[in-house]
Amino acid sequence: MFSLILFEPEIPPNTGNIIRLCANVGARLHLVHPLGFDLDEPRLRRAGLDYRALACIEEHADLASCLARLGAARVFALSTKGRRRVHDQRFEAGDAFLLGPETRGLPDWVLEERGAEAVLRLPMREGNRSLNLSNAAAVVLYEAWRQTGFSGGI
User: Does the domain formed by 3-147 have CATH 3.40.1280.10?
Assistant: First the structure.
C-alpha cells in the first residue's frame, strides 16, 4: 500500500477525484489542514461518487503530525521544481507521495525538508506550468503500483 498526502488542498473536485483514485489503487489518503473546503462539500462528493466509503482517509492538523503518523515511510514530494523524474525513482510498497495546493504547489520549506533526492517531477513539454493535481496523483500512484507488480490488483 502507498500513501498520498495532500498538503492544504484547495479544490473540492480534485480531492473527490483523488478519493476515488485512492480507493481504486488501495492507497491511504492523508489530508493536511487547513483544507480549502469542507469534506461534505457537494462538489467533492460528486467527484468522489460513492468511493469515500471505500477509501482510507486520515486528516492531520499539520504536516509534522502527518509525517509522524507515517513513521519510517519514504516520502517523495512532487514538484515542478524537482530535478529527478518520477519514472527514474524505484518505488517500494509503503512509500508516500506529497502534493501541494493547486494554486501554489509545495512551499520551499517543505521541498528543502525532503531534500533534492526526494523531490520528483513529472515530465512535461517545455513552457507548460503544471498538471492538474488529481492527474499528477494518478500518474505517480500508478507508476509506483506498476513498479511493485500491481500488488493486490486484478
Answer: yes
